[in-house]
Amino acid sequence: MVVGIDLGTTNSLVSVWRNGRAELIPNSFGEYLTPSVVSFDSDGTVYVGKTAQERLITHPEVTFREFKRQMGTECQFVAYGKSYRPQELSALILRQLRSDAEAFLGEPVEEAVISVPAYFDDKRRGATRNAGLLAGLKVERLINEPSAAALANHIQNMNLDELFVVFDFGGGTLDVSLVDAFDNMIEIQGVAGDNHLGGRDFNEVIAIDMCAKSELPWGKISPQQKELLYREAEQVKMKLSEQNEVETTIRMEGMEYQYSLANQQLIDLSSGLFRRMNQVLRRLMNDAQITVEDVSKVLMVGGSSKMPVVRHFVASLFDKKLCNDSNPDEIVCMGAGTLSGIKERMSEIKDIVILDICPFSLGVELRGDIMSPIISRNQSLPCSRVERYVTVYDGQNKIELNIFQGEHRNASSNLKLTSYVIDIPPRPKGEVFIDVRFSYDINGIFDIDVECPMAVVQIHDRLGNGGGLDSGELERRRQELEHMKIHPRELEQTKYVLEKAERLYVECNEQQKRLLEIALGQFQDILKLQDLQAAKKAYVKFEIQLAMIEKTLFRFAEFDAGIWEEMMQEDSEQNETSSDDGSEKH
Ligand code: ADP
Ligand code: MG
Question: How confident is the model at residue 580 (pLDDT cuts 50, 70, 90)?
Answer without folding.
Answer: very low
